[in-house]
Amino acid sequence: MKNKGLLIVISGPSGAGKGTVCRELLRSFNKNLELSISVTTRKPRVGETEGVNYFFRDKDEFARMVEDGEFIEYAKVHDNFYGTPKNYVMSKLEDGKDVILEIDMQGGMKVKHVFHEAISIYIIPPTFAELKKRIEGRGTETEKDICKRLKNAYEELGHVNNYDYVVVNDDIKNAAKKINCILTAEKCRLSRSNIDFDKFREG
Ligand code: 5GP
Predict the structure, then answer these.
(1) Is 66 within a domain?
(2) Are 38 and 55 in contact (CB under 8 A)?
């Protein structure tokens, strides 16, 4: 992946504030960063826009895309399918852009399996009680959906050690700042450097 962009997986339970932190990161820090837009079979929520939040597709179309190998990974999350578009992500990385995948843990693990150099970050709220409060406070999910999301969050937290980093989202700006620091450090890794040290020594 030398000279190419960083592939960054950001996961965390619903209500951790991943979306807001990612938007803050894009707004305040890394101008070389792109957020991948996933395809989903979920219905749009009020205020969500096609091609901005997701590409909303029906189950048949999603199945066709799976069949045609159009996803880097896909997963069933809370009863809906979500997939990461391969062409978009690969072309951005080739162009040297850093690409964020805001995806669930199953998807995150699949990406890590294929792209060992991907950087994985798990975002959590300060407490589990705070998570519950945030999901309930959103008012966008039914009671049944809220229960499912909380149960999934509880189970997923048992596998958090699959990730490289954990960021506590106590404050949006602070969390975005921490992620920016992680990315800065990752870019300085010797394994990612394209400096020819033999030439460098010759002056
Ligand atoms: P929501 O329905 O709240 O937008 O997203 C539900 C979950 O699906 C979130 O945890 C989100 O990160 C995850 N998700 C969104 N896009 C993708 C994707 O392309 N692949 C996978 N595996 N998960 C995704």
Answers:
(1) yes
(2) yes
